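Incident log, structure service

09:12 report received: a user says their structure output differs between two submissions of the same chain.
09:20 pulled the input from the user's history:
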Amino acid sequence: MKMHSYWLDTATPFANAMPGGPEGVADVAIVGGGFTGLSAALALAKKGASVVLLEADRVAGAASGRNGGMCNNGFAQDYHGMVAAMGEARAATLYRAFNAAVDKVESIVTEEGIDCHFQRVGKLKVAARPEHYDKIARSQALLAKSVDPETRMLPRSELRTEIGSDRYFGGMIYPRSASMHMGQYGQGLAEAAARHGARIYQDNPLTKLTRVGGTVHEVTTPHGSVRANQVLLATGTSRVGPLGWFRRRLIPVGAFLIATEPLPQELLDRLTPHRRNTTDTRNFVTYFRTLPGNRLLFGGRARFSSSTDPRSDAKSGAILRQSMISVFPELADTRIDYCWGGLVDMTQDRLPHAGERDGVFYSMGYSGHGTQMATYMGSIMAEVLDGRADLNPLADRGDWNAIPGYFGTPWFLPFVGAYYKYQDWVR
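09:34 re-ran on a clean worker, output below:
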């Protein structure tokens, strides 16, 4: 079993990184080479801007290369509850942004010729308990009325048409959602940005950020520095560099995944006949999808932890394997070929945040929606940097407050995990 990301192991590595470190001047310096930074670099370079992108490790090597490979529309949260909390108009605006995000990924893949197996397979959200089905149905009624009439409910009596398991109690289908190969997409996005003129430096972590005046900053790495007229932070949960203000607002939570050996076609046709991205309604969420080559990817929270290393990932992988077998008993003897983990940058409201602070622009905190929303917000932030702040769908949400008693080390995660585990048990 390989203890690293299937996506990164099976992707063609980015071949056009700049040697050494940054120097000189640029219109924009982007810190972070995940989907946000890469899509922003692509959009800005296509506008004719001189762009320098600085990545601490390898492009799309952190959360962007370690996720579940789902490009889903819709929230993880209950839409009915979102409407109650923020009003129907605001909830609908955000929901439409998530729809537009999937469309943006598809348009980039098509326009730039990225070979990443992009397919509109749809998402199936399954109810882990009977009462969860009623909650999903309330949300679907609101969605169908206003923002997503393509969604539909699937009662338990029809669930076998979508999933070869009796574990769940019905669900909801989002036809707009897609799947793709995350590694090929990330590397292809980097190649496209470089092809359009962006200068991309790997192994160049941010070590110092000095404001010269207005939005002009000197951006320093161990290998050089660049003076940029504008800076975009797209770093997620990075623990490197002078980013303390953001670390107090982002909680790194481990997400863990396994991938099986290649499975017979007829077996996959029974387990997931339409190859939907499938996710359940538990707080300790589990999700699965098929991979190129007929593998099954199975992922989830497994444990509430902020560490991902081979030992931690192996523990979580064992939990995930048992969860997979509880959903699909037919896979009891199936070999696991890959096991890996990554960090999700969670926020208190489980929604991303984007804007400007002290002359620095930022977009981060995707809270499990990173594939589509990071791509979309990267392109949006390119417009914001070009003077179109009105296009930011995440603006005007009030202050992004620090978490009391939190300074970047999430000491409270075991308590949160215990609480959510209890909630999953009682309701």
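09:41 both user submissions now match this output. Likely a transient worker issue. Closing.
09:42 reviewer note: The first strand starts at residue 25 and ends at 31. The CA atoms of residues 262 and 295 lie 4 Å apart.
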